[in-house]
Amino acid sequence: MSSRTPKEKLLIHMCYLLTERFTKVHDSIFRLLKAFIQHLSIREDGKVLSDFLLVLSEIKVKHYFFDPWTDCIGAFLMTMGCDAFFKTLPLDPVGHDMNSLTYA
Question: Which of 14, 19, 42, 68 lies 20 to 30 Å from 26, alpha-carbon distance?
C-alpha cells in the first residue's frame, strides 16, 4: 500500500508529463501545468514550485510551443511572487553583454 498522499501522487504524474516522452504534446502539458500551478501556494508548496520551475526552465522548447511555455512560466511568477521566483531562477542580466549579437 502506498504511503503517498493524493497530492504527492499528482505531483509525480505532473513531473512525468515533463519528460521527453511527451514532447509532441508540450503545448497541452504547459497549459495543464499552468492551471495546476495556479492552485498551489508558495507557503505550503514552495519547494514543489521551485523544483517544477527549474525543470520547466531547462526544457528545450520548440518554437511552436513557446507561447504556452511562457504562459506557464508566467503562472509560476504570479503564484510564487517575484522574490521566490527570481531566487529560484536567477536571470543575472548584469552578467551578460546585451549588445552582443549572441545574447539571445
Answer: 42
